[in-house]
Amino acid sequence: MDLKIAARMIAVVAIGAGLTAAISALHHEDGPEEVPFLRLRDPGGDPSLRALARCRDMGRVALDDPDCRKAWAETRRRFFGTDKPERPVTPKPGTDGAPSP
């Protein structure tokens, strides 16, 4: 048998085995994958976390609930750190930071 023919036959068998393995891997079904769902299980002693958990469990009804709106506003205020409103510093006219001549 010629060496070139033997190499071609081995290559065809290897490619066929690779395709078979790829097709069988694609057809392997375990069912739907379980996606981890993050939930706040124990809000602890923080009343704002308990209020947020209650609003989360209410669903769309929470959009009209005044307690939920208040809890969301408090959470935004704490997250963005708007406890102390800061005024922007405006430079005095004629001072651009450069030394005087």
Write the layout of secondary structure elements.
Elements: H1 3-26, H2 47-58, H3 66-80
Helix pairs in contact: 2-3
Word description of this protein:
The protein is an all-alpha fold and 101 residues long. The chain has a domain at 51-81. The chain has three helices and no strands. The longest helix is centred in the first third of the chain and has 24 residues, at 3-26. It is elongated, with a radius of gyration of 33 Å. The N and C termini lie far apart (95 Å).
Question: Radius of gyration over alpha carbons?
Answer: 33 Å
Q: Which oligomeric form is depicted?
A: single chain
Number of strands: 0
The proportion of residues forming helix, as a percent range, comes to 40-55%
Cα shape: elongated
Mean pLDDT, to the nearest integer, reads: 78
Distance between the termini: 95 Å
Q: Strand content of the residues, in percent? A: under 5%
Poorly predicted ranges: none
Count helical runs: 3
Largest sheet: none
Which class best fits the helix and strand makeup? mainly alpha
Written as H for each helix and E for each strand, in order along the chain, the element string is HHH
